[in-house]
Amino acid sequence: MIGFDTYSLPGWLILATTAALSFVHSVLWLWVCIPVALWKAATLWIFYGRPWSRIHYPAMRMYSRVSLIEFATSQSRGEEFDVTRAVSSLVQMIHPEWSEGQVATFVDRELERYRTKADREPVELRLRQRSNRRPPEEIASDLDTLLPILYEKDRNTMIVRLAIAGLVEQEYGVDQRAEYVDAVFAGRAK
Prior knowledge:
Distance between the termini: 21 Å
Structural class: mainly alpha
Radius of gyration: 20 Å
Helix content: over 70%
Oligomer: single chain
Order of helices and strands: HHHHHHHHH
Number of helices: 9
Number of domains: 2
């Protein structure tokens, strides 16, 4: 869906170079190769360890490009930045086979989910599963306090994250969407 991650290419080149040097020249290069291999393995685990992260990190990099283009376009037109156009461009970039109507339907659905805070129940269920000792009323109260703050603090960021959550749901299912939204709320999906 998202394709080869070119940002990891330098890490692989460094790893291959140090491995080759360790075999060709001396065992001392092996001491350089081992930390590089551990660094690369940790990077892969952090960025691609969870199914949602396989979509989140590449999509956020794509969105940074798309939002810059949208910002420049809106500035040249004398308009405000439109997150809906930026998200539509992101979805079109990830799914080039989709028609404009399919992209618009997807974005409208995610905007409606944003407006209705439709991800509250799955996140609440995940929190209940994760913290068995806390009473359900306390979890619900915390969510009642936190969700309005999270949703309104940075509206554009939440809309982008929920659009990515829709892509995660489409690829991996509702459970992964809930896990991703929980990670967004907890600050683990940056």
